Design the sequence.
């Protein structure tokens, strides 16, 4: 029976310095400092990759705006773990910062009147992986636009360029949706496959929404 010898590394994978004389045959680092530094680098690389993948699923017109927060149990958070507020721009961050942060459960976008962005939030619109008829009827009446699933997986967020004078919450039979364009943050989930990676215009947002 023959065995294959494993080539022994001579230098540290991180700092390129010599490995200790008594290091294990499979040692890659010269000590704990380099091992931890390499681990942090790998984590940062994974986070950057995840941020890039996420950015590819969210419209640029959202990711370029410094309106981003983290969230925990639906409460908006700063990247450092302190509470954020929809009324305090200093508590918001850019997309890169929230994407690389590990605070809370995920990311959210703060709506402000000056941006001209309106979100229609369809509550309990998905069941068993299918959009319910009442929700599909609303989607069909609106221009094709960026749409993503809410955190629960049963809601849908439709994003438009437009505005409403004030937020509205509408409940009528099984129909249930909310509309916001200011002083509200929206938890951003996974993009619905096949929907545009851009926001459609909704010129008469208030009038159209009132007719739904």
Sequence:
């Amino acid at each position: 029976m023959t065995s294959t010898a494993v080539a022994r590394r001579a230098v540290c994978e991180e700092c390129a310095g010599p490995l200790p004389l008594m290091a294990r045959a499979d040692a890659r680092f010269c000590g704990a400092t380099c091992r931890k530094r390499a681990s942090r680098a790998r984590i940062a690389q994974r986070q950057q990759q995840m941020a890039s993948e996420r950015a590819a699923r969210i419209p640029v017109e959202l990711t370029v705006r410094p309106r981003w927060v983290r969230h925990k149990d639906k409460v908006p958070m700063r990247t450092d773990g302190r509470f954020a507020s929809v009324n305090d721009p200093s508590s918001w961050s850019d997309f890169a910062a929230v994407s690389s942060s590990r605070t809370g459960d995920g990311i959210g976008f703060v709506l402000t009147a000056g941006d001209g962005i309106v979100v229609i939030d369809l509550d309990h619109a998905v069941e068993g992986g299918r959009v319910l008829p009442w929700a599909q009827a609303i989607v069909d009446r609106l221009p094709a636009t960026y749409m993503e699933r809410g955190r629960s997986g049963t809601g849908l967020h439709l994003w438009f360029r437009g505005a409403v004078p004030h937020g509205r919450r509408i409940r009528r039979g099984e129909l249930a949706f909310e509309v916001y364009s200011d002083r509200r943050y929206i938890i951003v989930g996974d993009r619905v496959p096949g929907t545009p990676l851009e926001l459609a215009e909704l010129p008469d947002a208030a009038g159209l929404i009132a007719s739904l």
Notes: The chain has five helices and twelve strands. The radius of gyration is 24 Å.
